[in-house]
Write a structure and sequence with these properties.
heterodimer, A: 117 residues, B: 95 residues, mainly alpha
Amino acid sequence: MEAIFDFWNALRPALGSALVLVGAMLAVIGTVGVLRFPDFYTRLHAASVTDTAAATLAIVGMALLAPSFAVVFKLAVVWLFLFMTGPTSSHAIANAAHTAGLQPMIGRVDKADGGAE
Amino acid sequence: MIGAAAIALVVAFALMLIRALSGPTLYDRVLAVNSLGTEIILLLGVIGFLTGRPDFLDISILYALINFVSTIAILKFFRYRSFQVSLTRRGKGGA
């Protein structure tokens, strides 16, 4: 039992750092999606990668690096807030855009005008 | 490795700022600012662990709350052009 704890304590910083790094890379990927997708509604889809996967992985990684239980509790509170407010604000933005009459782009996106615009 | 994560978050931050500044419609900008807020929350936590002061997480909690409220407030203002309108539904049919 003692050996398992020792192994876990040796593994914990490396695993936490790796998870934080993966979360940050997912944030970059979601941001590139927001920058490159052709339409507002597809950009909304890309932004939700940042809001869910990146935030969860980074916060779990930071919780593995945490020095005390109070820090883990604060991270859990941040995670809870993100998971209550993220889908709500995504829905509010999509609903506002739809009510204002913003139409989604339908059909194929040509290679010529796909991209940053 | 945590430093690399902080650098990646700063890069994501800069790219998202481009979308926030150049978004064709208002909603692109609101979406970009909202995602920017999520990245700021993560970056604050990472900076706290990088400098050995996890007290930065208190600022993260505060930022998460303010980010949500400001998103809803911006959307409400640009829909009704006023902050004085009640958001509850009035009657059965009307929103």
